[in-house]
Specification:
The complex is a heterodimer of chains A (about 110) and B (about 120).
Chain A lengths: L3 E2 L3 E4 L4 E8 L11 E5 L6 E5 L3 E2 L7 E6 L2 E7 L8 E9 L2 E4 L3 E5 L1
Parallel strand pairs in A: 2-11
Antiparallel strand pairs in A: 1-3, 3-8, 4-5, 4-9, 5-6, 7-8, 9-10, 9-11
Chain B lengths: L2 E5 L3 E2 L5 E8 L8 E8 L6 E6 L5 E3 L7 E6 L4 E6 L8 E9 L16 E5 L2
Parallel strand pairs in B: 2-10
Antiparallel strand pairs in B: 1-3, 3-8, 4-5, 4-9, 5-6, 7-8, 9-10
The chains are: A mainly beta (about 110), B mainly beta (about 120).
Chain lengths: ~110, ~120
């Protein structure tokens, strides 16, 4: 069974840079997995941030960017703000219509 | 702007079948520009993809659900539906519907717009 890995938690200082990663237990992540990223605050539905590796969804601030770093997909926040404190989920396309989410990363801004 | 609104029973008993609907507004549920999906999230846990359905009835399901899930599109009601049978406490979750964009001959796999979700509790 394919598992998508994410850091359980990360922290960043206001104005700092933080990188979330999204990997596979079996192999490397590439653009062929169409990585996407979602932000979720408690009690809210997920908000789409990034899709197709590095495309920002409409209305998403430029401080959010997506990429492939090594063998993982990555989400970078440059100039973190207090309201970025949320959970972040990645999702990968495995083919044949199937997708899988990572376990999520809880970001603390302190 | 596409809007999605889930609705369901709230509380269901173990071994019963869950039926959820998602009302779609802002565009046609039978548009070839969208795939529709269901995703769930147990309390305090991560997201789990349940399945996706196209207006033609074409479906993809998460193999881990072992054929318990059935999805369909009702164009007359502008609704997407999810049926999940043989419920256990592990199916307690917030259930979200969402869309995938299909700008051309193929569809992007990511979910673009999400509903607010509906909490389903499985308990006797």
């Amino acid at each position: 069974q394919t598992v998508v890995t994410q850091e359980p938690s990360l922290s960043v200082s206001p104005g700092g840079t933080v990188v979330f990663t999204c990997g596979l237990t079996s192999g490397s992540v590439s653009t062929r997995h169409y990585p996407s990223w979602y932000q979720q605050t408690p009690g809210q539905s997920p908000r789409t941030l990034i899709y197709r590796t590095d495309v920002r969804s409409s209305g998403v601030p430029e401080r959010f960017s997506g990429s492939i770093l090594g063998n993982k997909a990555a989400l970078t926040i440059t100039g973190a703000q207090a309201d970025d404190e949320s959970a972040y989920f990645c999702m990968l396309y495995l083919g044949t219509g199937s997708v899988v989410f990572g376990g999520g990363t809880k970001l603390t801004v302190l | 702007q596409l809007q999605l609104q889930e609705s369901g029973p709230g509380l269901v008993k173990p071994s019963e079948t869950l039926s959820l609907t998602c009302n779609v507004s802002g565009d046609s549920v039978s548009s070839d520009h969208y795939y529709w999906g269901w995703i769930r999230q147990p309390p305090g846990k991560g997201l789990e993809w349940i399945g996706s359905v196209y207006y033609t009835g074409s479906t993809y399901y998460n193999p881990s659900l072992k054929s318990r899930a059935t999805m369909s599109v009702d164009t007359s009601k502008s609704q997407i539906s999810l049926s999940l049978k043989s419920l256990t406490a592990a199916d307690t979750a917030v259930y979200y519907c969402a869309n995938r964009d299909c700008p051309g001959a193929s569809c992007y796999p990511h979910f673009q717009h999400w509903g607010r979700g509906t909490l389903v509790t499985v308990s006797s």
